[in-house]
Amino acid sequence: MDRRQFLGTTAGAVIGAATLAAPALAQAKARVRAGYLHTLAVDGQIWTGMDRGSFDKQGLDLELRQFNTGLELFQALIGGSLDVLATGAVVSNFPARGQGKVFLINDIEVATAQLWVRSDQGVASFADLKGKRIATTTGTTAHVFLDKALRANKVDPKEVELVNQTMPAAVTAFISGAVPAVALWVPFNITVREKVPGAVKLADASAYYPQAAIMGGWAARNDYYDANRATLANLIRGWAEANDYMIAHSEEALDSLQKAHYPQTPLSDLKEQFAAQKMFTAQDWKAKYADGTVTAWLQQSTDFFMANAGIKEFTPASSYFDSSLYLTTLA
After folding, report:
1. What pTM, to 2 d.p., does this model score?
2. Can you list the domains of the chain with their CATH numbers?
3. How far apart, in Å, are the Cα atoms of 51 and each of 39, 57, 242, 284?
């Protein structure tokens, strides 16, 4: 074999090897079917990580599906069409019923849940709410907040009439005057503010923090969690990189998110949503995982959900939330 033949054969082998390697590398990525809500407090880290390659770097192929509520997300998870999900306060609900394992917290929805009232219908204080109708979506972040706000202001939740609707319908009912109050989550507050100039924000969840905190986060299907801890550890690493970038470079991150994923939302409104959530760096979260703070906050929401559903026997947060995976992964 002369030199020219040798080079040709070698080049062909290299090209062939590269061709074979490409599919192998692609196949090596772990496909994860992930559901999410399209609201900044839930999908901010997801899209930042997707756009910046944070999850790709960890060998993950996230197959994303958008849902309208946390209830729909858990139905899909329980039904087997999702491996993991990211949601709001509902992350404290179904896992307490043995349906899903919580392994990662996104943020605290410190002011994302809000209570708006119409003074033109005689409601200007919590006392005025007695006997009135309040529209909201039960079993959600807004519902958890509303219950806490009523009790904190000496109004028994039984003294008001809850009107359970999807959030768009609840907000429409408030705008039309069909109900004098609505418990919502951002960004629906912007619509209320624009359509009902005289509407008053009576309270938001920040009034009860840090004694109480409504958190959003991630849960995995039980069987998936048991069999795919290494994949979930990689998801945590990708999330951590995206999360810390959002904190350190919030202006750039929000600008990118608005252009790529929230084009119908003015940047000023997106910044308002960002201000309504409380984020911690991945390292700062470690202390709250380790000292039981996260578990205690999850349990507060769980206690509400279980009492509201009349369930007396349930799985406590100390069992359905596994802090060890996060702490080990980011040691």
Report:
1. 0.86
2. 28-109+212-329 (3.40.190.10), 113-208 (3.40.190.10)
3. 17, 11, 9, 24
